Amino acid sequence: MNANTQLIATAVQAWRLTIDRISKTLASFTDDELQLEVAPGKNRVYCLVGHLAATHDRLFPLLRLGERLHPELDSQFLENPDRKFLGHDVTPAELRTIWSEVNQKLVEAFASLEPHEWLQRHGSVSEEDFAKEPLRNRLAVLISRLSHAAYHEGQMRLVGGSLPSRS
Amino acid sequence: MNANTQLIATAVQAWRLTIDRISKTLASFTDDELQLEVAPGKNRVYCLVGHLAATHDRLFPLLRLGERLHPELDSQFLENPDRKFLGHDVTPAELRTIWSEVNQKLVEAFASLEPHEWLQRHGSVSEEDFAKEPLRNRLAVLISRLSHAAYHEGQMRLVGGSLPSRS
Fold this sequence. Notes:
Two copies of one chain form a homodimer.
Chain A: H1 3-28, H2 31-34, H3 45-57, H4 59-62, H5 73-77, H6 92-110, H7 127-132, H8 138-156
């Protein structure tokens, strides 16, 4: 394995570990527990999982890896605050399935990229801007979204006591 | 800039962004607000900042970048639960200074590493184990600690309302 390959393998492995940890957290909650707020007056766990699923679904176009699987998530989980969405709520069972599907397909899509392709621009930066700011690349998006997922994981883990807290 | 250099620059930039965001969060809290719990019965913000400062201070030996600056933090922030430490508490003012100092010195130390050195083993894996698991390298530690910092940042940001929540 050359250095580039190994650097990307390390970053993708870190992504997998984060997703696996959140998947375990999600599996540890009953459907009822998903309705708990992470702190008084704050988002429900259910809402945070939906928010992450929608954000990760958006990675397909953002990383230029193809079409989204679930654009219908945005209205409930990205464009409206928790409990203000007036449409049909995704059920907890549906959300669990979507979470697995989106993240599974994402890591498959990651595997299709060669190491140097991670240094190419992400889908929200123009070629002109990218020429000036070459760090606005796919890898930057991957690490940023990993950090974002961990941010909300820390909030989810305030609820329930069946898993040891991350130290 | 060659590909390796650019991959590492991207990861280190992501680290900086995470630390800068947490530093802004810390600056947004008064000393009194640092004493607030992130959720009922959970850690105080003060404790989480100390926990992160101690964890980042440990990165010096873990990344084989030199001696720690503040080993005295461990007893209060890593080895005892919040409010169970019987020694002298670090004051909020001291904690703010330590946070800045540790993170400033860390990014300076990161700059001393060549890209290929990020693929070398971290300080807690033996050469023998590393030969079998080459992804247990310095870069893996960097991304893991970035994720860990974001995890606790998400908890801190449940307190107070002066900064917009991360979407």
